[in-house]
């Protein structure tokens, strides 16, 4: 009884929808059904529906805390890449502007005179030290629990 | 001869425009033919829309600011100083430090200043969320109120067809306040009254500055038990009696008064004598297409400082900045401006604490309201927490 009622209601709905009275809508739906038929018959459309459901679940589960972590990752990544590409582009342009590159001794003197250059070297040194520390941790022999 | 381009203002408009100018004019900069300078009076860059969230305890100060210099490309000279005088006729800036700078092209992006002192009693008895400290003060009040009446009002500039700061913000905060008080469990004991002035840009006696959105607001407010009232233009406040008095002759009592305050241009812009705006508001006469300061081909104006009928918000700067960069490049390379601003503004409105509604409009087409969604809310929060800084860097 319930099935009959719902079938009737669906029929009524299909007959009453203004969009379905338009020939272009019906033609478009027919095209779409033709495209969908093989993946529907092969049960592959199910995967797309599952994917949509999974995306919807992620949206439902996302809260303030999760969003803040994701955006912090975004900002750290983009900000870091931006800073590095800026430095690379700017430094390359400066180097290209000199018709003759400085001699090794001139470069050493520049390091000695330029506080920012020395700080940059310090940053690189700190990065190497941190990489070394992490490598040492990974290489440590760990006792069994 | 090196061409000097100076951007004044370290807000979102100035920051993204300085970065965009370097991108646009990179060949000239590399050849040493162009120099870009940004002048700001603060070493910090603040994400100002987040002040609204501070009022709801959702943002800490260090989460909404960055070092100004860290947001600028290395090709930009950053000057920490304040402009005391715009000498547009001489193409010169006089600085507080005593220095002066000559420019070939100038971008004025100096923002606006909330000025509650321009309404009698408002500074003493009113609250707002357009600056950090007032927003913190408002948070203390709305996070402790147990019962009473919160009265919300909006003040428009006197200049015809110029909006207040961030047109959607009063509506956003009203909906956020409703949800905030529900979460606290005190909503039944706190009455929220949303009011709008009789004259709101081109509309009259409405609840919003655009008619179509104004027409859907009553049903939104009714569904949440928010009282709404048209035709309340705040004239003065009696701090002793806690009464807001309107130009229309009404008196309304309040326990908390959240009022979008009067705004004005910064002192140096006011003192330039170029503005024709009434009430010493200081908006600069701006060509609505090229964004040039009227009468000065080499000066461009953007953001809150313009006298255009466009939201004083970052979403406006985002669309004005490429036009200004294109036009400066056009003047330098071809001797004429090449781009026109169509008035486009886009934003994602915060509709309550969780939902959001993307919106856009321009000179010709108003916002078409759509249902608020959780995805819209996530987009807004994602923008607040990360994408904004990419916009400032000129990446988005």
From TrEMBL, chain A:
This is DUF1641 domain-containing protein.
Automatic annotation (TrEMBL), chain B:
Keywords: Oxidoreductase. This is FAD/NAD(P)-binding oxidoreductase. It is an enzyme of class 1 (oxidoreductase). It holds the Pfam family Pyr_redox_2. Residues 4-137 form the FAD/NAD(P)-binding domain. PANTHER family: FAD-DEPENDENT PYRIDINE NUCLEOTIDE-DISULPHIDE OXIDOREDUCTASE, PTHR43755. It comes from the Bacteria. The keyword Transcription does not apply. InterPro entries: FAD/NAD-bd_sf (IPR036188), FAD/NAD-binding_dom (IPR023753), SQRD (IPR052541). Its EC number is 1.-.-.-. GO terms for molecular function: oxidoreductase activity. SUPFAM superfamilies: FAD/NAD(P)-binding domain.
